[in-house]
Amino acid sequence: RISFDLLCPHPLHMMLTWILLGQVPFFLEDPDYKGLELDLIVLCEKHGKPSERLVAFEGTMTGRRFLACAEPEGQNCGFVQWVDEQWPPTMENALLKLWSMVEESKSARVNDNLQSALTIHHLAEEKNKLDADYDKLVKDVHQLVDFQQDRVVDFSYLQSAVTYQHQCRAELVAG
Ligand SMILES: [Zn+2]
Questions:
Q1: For the chain, give me the number of helices (H) and strands (E)?
Q2: What positions does the domain GRF-type occupy (predicted)?
């Protein structure tokens, strides 16, 4: 939904008016070109208010000045009027190359982050496994100790049984 408005009443008659409804290009904060455009009266069509000076920061449009509806997001009518003409093809190619380099380094970073996330997940799993192993070891040791105590008890029972038999025998001998 791009319409070209070539009826430009302003001194910058080379300007192309592009109305990209709801599609304002990404832009950059530029100290040399910012705020409301009050020198040229370019009113956004829907609101009839002075437009805002912005610098595109997207694809082949990167660095081109434009005027846009100054209303905040949600109320913004998407009015865009380019101040700078399209760059020559060589410049556009260079910009596309730069953006593809940015994308590459971004996806490399995403991969790195994914890798660290997986490593952290793996480490967490290792820790859980170690915790489980430790719990099992503690349980085994307790069982072993219990078992040994049972054996001691058994032994003392045996001991008392032997002692009892000794006593019985002694009584028999005495009797
Ligand atoms: Zn507007």
A1: 1, 6
A2: 44-86
